[in-house]
Amino acid sequence: MIKRLSIAALGLLVFGSIASAQIAAVPQVGLTTGYLAKNTYSSAFFGLVPPASATDEVCITGSATKVVRVDRIAIGGTAGTLVALPIQVVRRATADTGGTLATTTANPGITTQIASRDTGQALNTSATAILASYTAVPTINDSAPVYVDSAMMILNTTATASPQVTVFDWSRDIENNVQVPTLRGVAQQLCVNFNAVSISSGVLNGSITWTEE
Question: What is the domain range of residue 165?
């Protein structure tokens, strides 16, 4: 009798160990079990002079072939006089047209300024999202956008040694299973809007980071 009980107890122990190992090996919903890097790109702009009564100033437009997820937008700079500027990040269902695009390093859309975050990743050959910044305001075709985020951007004077940068950082949302701003198709666009404010002698710098899946 004792021998039978011992065998039965041993069997339960072995079965429990196997079951426990199997359960531990099964990934749970919402549990991050490994680092799965996505095709990631970034681009910067320098010396951007915003127009008078600036509206959509820096934009990223979606792709015809990929889903674009925007992780981070940083923007800052200087002005002739101290400016506290309310800015918004808006998502438009119809992309802007017209306007005057910035040139050279002031435009993040220049292809030579778009960098793959991993040059050894075979799929990171080239980005398909379209980026733009403006020195003359574009025509806004979607008058009822989704307001994704907002902030006060402080532009110190050119002589000030401590310029400030306003950052919209959605990348940590992914860790908490929160969706980041997403663009599907070439009609959708995410823009930093300056609320029709004029900046005296403004010069802006910044960057955009996004993934394509």
Answer: 39-212
